[in-house]
Amino acid sequence: MASPLLAGLHPDTVPALDLLTVPQVMTRLQLGRSAVYDLLRTGQLASITLGRARRIPTHALTDFIRTRLEQDTA
What we know:
Blueprint: E1 19-20, H1 22-29, H2 33-41, E2 48-50, E3 53-57, H3 58-73
Antiparallel strand pairs: 1-3, 2-3
């Protein structure tokens, strides 16, 4: 079943989503594995599961960082 965000789009027009692994997110955020999994578990960082693999869309990481910056400036 297609995502509601992608429903109705022709497959050739669907933008490619860059997916990051947990170790890639760990490197980008300079956090440990358990800290990243805590962010995923609490819903602060969105992800998808493909089989047993967890993947984080780059836009989800960008949104997480933007939200944290807005919280810190408020």
